[in-house]
Amino acid sequence: MAIQTTSGGGGGGGGVSTKCRWLLMTWTTFLPLLALLLGRVTMCSSASLPQHVGCESPTKLDARDLKVRTYQSNGSQPGYFRYMTVDTESGYLFVGAMNTIHALNLYNIESANRRFKQEFNATPHSSYRCRIQGKKEYPDCQNNIRVLVRNSSVPNSFYMCGTGAYRPVAYQLRLENRRFHVLVEDSEDAVGICPYDPADNTTATLVEHGNPGGIPALYAGGVTDFIKADPLILRPNLYHANHSLEVRFVRTLRDRSKWLNEPQFVGSFDLDGHVYFFFREVALEYTNCGKKIYSRVVRVCKNDQGGRHILRNVWTSFVKARLNCSIPGEYPYYFDEIQDVSLIGDTFYGLFTTNINGLTASAICAFSVNDMNKAFWGPFKGQETKKSNWLPIPEDEVPDPRPGNCTVADTQQLSTQAVNFISRSELLMDKAVDHQFSTPIFYQGNCLLQKMAVAKNVSGHGDLVFYAASNTGLVYKIFAWPSRAPQDPPKSYVTTTYMPFNEARPVWSMILQSQTLYLGTDQSVVQLSVVTCEAYSKVDLCIYDPYCGWDAKAGQCLHTIKGRRLITFADIDLYNHDLERAIQLKVGDLYKYEKVSKISGSSVTLKVVYKLHVPGTVTWMKNNTFIADDRHILAQDNSLIITDLRKADEGVYEAIDEQKRTVAKYLLSIETTKEQIEQRWMRKFDQWCDEFERYQNDIRQWEQKCSTCCEDSPISNMVPRIGGN
Q: What pLDDT, on a 0 to 100 scale, did the predictor assign at position 700?
């Protein structure tokens, strides 16, 4: 929860005294929490479909349900499977682990077919230096692989780097005959791309087009030193195939905490003429009021060659903005710490959390490229002195062309005014990047989500599916039901909770490839299918999963394969009807009004057979009166068990759920006279006789067919005839 000190769209800074008053800080921090506790902010998406459903999903699937496939190393130490990448060209899932690259069959990671692993150990000298500097032998003083990317401009070539026992090392590799051949091994090329500390959050992306000289280049966010004092965003030297230098490296300014201040990077992306970096950092514009973490996006131009003089080898196009992911209201509730990010089309989807030292909550927010551009082309924010308020910089002080403009043909020829502005300025935008719909797509309390994967339009109807992994190893499948109007937020719903592990463990890496999800933990890599339609026994649970549809005739949930006529979420009209009525129009009555007759002194079980999910417990009523006595027992599945039936038990029984819906209805009659009981048994006897007669007819028909087909067979004499001797 942040104290907003300007009207900068959540950008912070300016508008109050430099010395924050204790009372203001106390109340602005306390009020959103108070509103949350009093129910004004419900930590479950306000757009959730059925408003009664909590954040927990009604369907929970364990490893056996998910048919999980597992790969783990055989050594005594954990594998530390913290980096994964899918390489469809070779058909491998490459897993970066401690001292090893594991190449797993992309379609079955348990299969030994074509699988291989290859060790890349740290040098004994590096490991020794690491240990005497106080680091742990495992995993710190090992070579933890953190980057592996294919260079498509050279067949079967890869760039890889590892931590090298706190001395990062880079490799140029060629893949042949199920083995990597090392072409080049160099420590200098890894600085700034691979972390020193295997626990650090860094990012790197290979950009193949748009760079100076048309040369593929790595763009990375990380640190360059052992003590993490020099964070940077870097593009290394660019060389032609003949090893001639095209342009030297460019990076962020050294010793400029106003550009990067203790960043933790979560992702980087190549989009059009820019490269975007996402991270969280200590917000300097907030430091007058204490320490605060904000989420950021940085954009640089791919054609940037660095400036001149003090900007030599320094980005001239670097611009930075805050990401605003919050629940709107009089006192907005902010999710300030970005954990992961994905790009689908021209929209970035970010996974955010609150600070783990406070009330834990997670959210997913969407940011369009257009909204980012609005922030980057808006006013800059700065302060004249260290004690000044953070205020918008007047437009007449911003040079032309302004920083972030990729139309500059030669950035080394920028004017003195531009060089001075860039070198002195924080290059922070005054306006934060607003999230789409002005509200999160999904948010959830008491859960720390740290990895995310996104699938879009899996059903062809504009849906979104998010897979969000928690710090305990649970994976939430979240369905965002698209709204009719593009400006309206989707309705989000937690479809399923995956429980692929037997014990709690954090998920460090997650990849969604087609309909398969891969999870990397310190102990193992697991593979599971995200198509779990057979697990949904109710209509609503089925249609909340866009991979699935309901077969009304068979009464079961099936995968929406082309050609099948199934009821999906796209067939449900929520704009003119409530959920129950909309589904009823498609599948018929949601329960059957049954007549039940029983003998006095016996017992009866009245089940809840409702076609929709019934959360919580139900309340049973008899003739519109609540039932409360020892002979009426509410079972765990919400069934009503009545023992020692009496004539007084006759009547209409209804089950009412927590939403005040009638989910079951029975007319119970009790037979007490001798004549009633005799008539009941006679009816049963007649039914039994009819069944026996049908059975006899089936036997006769089978005898006749068998006699005909076996008459000329030499084996027929060996088979005794039914009813014969």
A: 76
Q: Using an 8 Å Cβ cutoff, are 568 and 109 in contact? A: no
Place of tokens 């339609």: 533
Q: Residue 338 and residue 452: Cα distance in Å, rounded? A: 11
Q: Which residues contact 129 (CB under 8 A, 6 or more apart)?
A: 165, 166, 167
d(CA 619, CA 662): 10
Is the distance from CB of 626 to CB of 650 less than 8 angstroms? no
Nearest alpha-carbon partner for 608 in 527, 539, 665: 665
Q: Which secondary-structure segment (H or E) carries 439?
A: none
83-104 per-residue burial string, b: 16 or more CB within 10 A, e: under 16:
bbbbbeebebbbbbbbbbbbbb
Written as six digits, the tokens of 256 are: 């400029």
How is residue 579 written in tokens? 């959920």
Tokens, residue 220: 């990375």
**Gap between the Cα atoms of 389 and 367, Å rounded:** 28
Q: Which residues contact 446 (CB under 8 A, 6 or more apart)?
A: 43, 55, 360, 361
**Structure-block tokens of residue 693:** 């007669």
SS3 258: coil
> 624-632 contacts: CB < 8 A, separation 24 or more?
624/654
Count of CB atoms within 10 A of residue 658's CB? 12
Report, as ranges of residue numbers, the positions in the chain whose pLDDT lies below 70.
1-55, 288, 673-687, 705-725
Pick the closest to residue 160 from 215, 210, 218 (CA basis): 218
At 158, the amino acid letter reads: F
Is 329 within 8 Å of 341 (Cβ atoms)?
no
| DSSP letter, residue 137 | T
Give the dihedral sign, CA 254/255/258/263.
Answer: positive
pLDDT at residue 628 in the model: 81
Q: What is the pTM of this model?
A: 0.84
Predicted confidence at residue 15, as pLDDT, reads: 35
Q: Which two tokens stand for residue 264?
A: 């933790």
DSSP string, 262-293: S-EEEEEEEETTEEEEEEEEE-GGGGGG---E
| Closest residue by Cα to residue 631 from 621, 643, 620 | 643
Cα distance between residue 168 and residue 190, in whole Å: 6
* DSSP class per residue in 504-564: -----EEEEETTEEEEE-SS-EEEEES--GGG--SHHHHHTSTTEEEETTTTEEEE--TT-
Q: In whole angstroms, what is the distance from residue 337 CA to residue 462 CA?
A: 28
Sheet-wide strand order for 231-235: 203-207, 217-223, 231-235, 250-251
Q: What is the DSSP letter of 44?
A: B
Could you give the CA distance from residue 590 to residue 608 in angstroms, rounded to a whole number? Answer: 11
Place of tokens 């076996």: 710
Helix segments in 136-282, DSSP class H: none
Structure tokens at 120: 């890349």
Give the span between the Cα atoms of 44 and 327, in whole angstroms. Answer: 11
pLDDT value at position 613?
95
Residue 512 · residue 520 · CB < 8 Å? no
Of 329, 294, 293, 292, nearest to 42 (Cα)? 329
For the chain, counts of helices (H) and of strands (E):
8, 47
Show the tokens assigned to 170: 């880079």
Please give the radius of gyration of the chain, using alpha carbons only, rounded to the nearest integer. Answer: 33
| Mean confidence (pLDDT) of the chain | 87
Please say whether the beta carbons of 666 and 652 come within 8 A: yes
Secondary structure string (H, E, C) spanning 603-652: CEEECCCCCCCCCCCCEEEECCEECCCCCEEECCCCCEEECCCCHHHCEE
**Gap between the Cα atoms of 271 and 367, Å rounded:** 14
CA dihedral 226, 228, 229, 231 (to 10 degrees): 120
Burial of 57 (0-12, 13-18, 19+ CB in 10 A): buried
Q: What is the DSSP letter of 489?
A: P
